[in-house]
Amino acid sequence: MHGHMRRIHETRKWDPDEVDLAGINLNLLVALDALLKEAHVTRAAARVGLTQSAMSHALGQLRELLDDALLIRGRGGMVLTPRAEQLAAPLRRGLVELQRALRNEPAFEPATASRRFTVATRDYFGSALLPSALELLGREAPGVDLTVLHVENTTYPALLESGEVDLVVVTPPVETGPGLRQQKLFTEDFVCVVRKGHPRVRKTLDLDTYVKLSHVLISPRGDGVGAVDRVLAQRGLPPRRIALRVPYFLIAPLVVTRSDHVLTAPRRLIAAFSQAYPLQVFAPPLPVPSFDMIQVWHERFDGDPAHQWLRGFVARAVGASHPGSRNTRSSRRVRRTPGS
């Protein structure tokens, strides 16, 4: 589907009761896919190698063909009409399937393959596990490239189905839907961490000291409480002081290195930081529930050799980052991830 479209030909008007593909210029569908993706005529033109005027002409033809404005001006730029939003996902799926059919790719050989995969996840996976994944990738598949995107729970099922995202790595709750498959990669537990030389923490961290310290909470939405707070409440213990809430896993350990706060965070995350920063790591002085890390994909790609390799690669990268991890081949029962 990539490359230049030299001409956009005139097309008969769309008849919803009798769709005749022979009467439709399929280049217009490529243009429509770019317009729906970018919601911007100039960027859509660049995406498929057209001039801006050619893309504007294509948009005019599409509006006439589909009897819908498709893109209209909003406060922040162009926005999709309801009809355009309805078309976006099935059109992308169809074009991806056509690409795959025409590609006729040979069997996937990681050592010699030249390909890009897109993985959607959150910064916990990126900071704790991506370095090991890249090291393994360099040994197994030096010609394979990765694009890592921030995952949004409400959108990734459609992205997986269309093939725009190859794999999603998330913590429960995991989105479910037609065709979605999932595999538990490992079960993660928590540790507590303070900076070395902390004035109130020496060789041990007891519960009384822990409760009285000021805490950092990783909270993606910037509100609420974590699993620690729920456990404290269940035991009738006084609430802790949450001195700082941060939305990203990557920031929290760095804050601890320059403060007297304590952080309760996933073990793998802290293991990655404790090698480079002066941190003291302790077992939590109260039981904090563990959580699962899940990889999710669409069943359309179950039998694809490249996708099979990708899923196995992610599982191996998890093991390389933490050899003692409890990995499983599959799991459909997952637990809600606690905050900390």
Automatic annotation (TrEMBL):
- Segments for region (Disordered): 320-340
- Asked whether the UniProt record includes Transcription regulation among its keywords, one would answer yes
- Which intervals carry biased composition (Basic residues)? 329-340
Q: Which residues form the HTH lysR-type domain?
A: 24-81
**Annotated transmembrane regions:** none
Gene3D superfamilies xref list: Periplasmic binding protein-like II, Winged helix-like DNA-binding domain superfamily/Winged helix DNA-binding domain
Task: Cite the InterPro entries for this sequence.
Answer: LysR-type_TF, LysR_HTH_N, LysR_subst-bd, WH-like_DNA-bd_sf, WH_DNA-bd_sf, YidZ_PBP2
**What keywords are annotated for this sequence in UniProt?**
DNA-binding, Transcription, Transcription regulation
- Give the Pfam families listed for this entry: HTH_1 (PF00126), LysR_substrate (PF03466)
One GO MF term, please? DNA-binding transcription factor activity
UniProt lists the family membership as follows: Belongs to the LysR transcriptional regulatory family.
- Please name the PANTHER family in this protein's record: HTH-TYPE TRANSCRIPTIONAL REGULATOR LEUO-RELATED (PTHR30118), TRANSCRIPTIONAL REGULATORY PROTEIN (PTHR30118:SF15)
Q: What is this protein called?
A: LysR family transcriptional regulator
Q: Which organism is it from?
A: Corallococcus terminator
